[in-house]
Amino acid sequence: MPPSEIVHALEEEAKERRKAAKEKTKKEPKERGWAKVPKNLEHRRKEVYPEGYNPETMTIIGSDTVRILQREPATFYVQEIIYHKCLLRETVSSTHQTILQHPALPRLIPSSFVGDSVILEMLVSKYTHHIPEYRQAKMYKELGIDFATSSINRWMHDTIEQFYPLYFCQMNKVMESSVLHIDETTIPINDKPGKTRKGYIWRVVDGSRNNHGLFFLLPRRISFAKDCRFTPARI
Length: 235
Fold this sequence. Notes:
By secondary structure, the chain is α+β, with helices and mostly antiparallel strands. It has helices at residues 3-25, 116-127, 133-142, 149-160, 164-175, 221-228; strands spanning 85-87, 99-101, 180-192, 195-206, 213-218.
């Protein structure tokens, strides 16, 4: 093959590669409007008639439909759980009457007046959407519910403490790994009025493909290795 034909073939091949790369990197058109709205949303219909409409003197010959995405503000309601007490009729005349009542239904914080749905929304807002507690208190106040920031903080702590068994299971699983990847971050801890101290957050990830991990918050750097009983070969 003559050199000119070889050069021409190489140029054509290069053009094809550039064209294929361009098509590959070409961005797909972004979805707009209703393409991004879930199909299973509730549809509420509102029918509007011309002013002075009278079905006896007018005939509907057509209609135009406009779809508008709307949102209802968050709503609260008070759930009343009534625990009925029942007396066995056969023990009415007995000196030891038998009275039955269903035990209290399980709740995240049985002594609190807020339900599980409220507490879970607070947790999701803080740890998923990164909304601090004082901002959540402002948001609830706009809805007519005056929660103190300290109350929100206490409810969160009381709920998170119930996850400790799950956390320890995760910790034991991570510690079984032959290789541990550890990262240290310092943060100021304000647990005394007008005074802060340095605390340490440790991020520990095992050597598995799924990268199972956990966090430690300890007051001193030496506490981590001492409390977790690390050996130099594993760090």
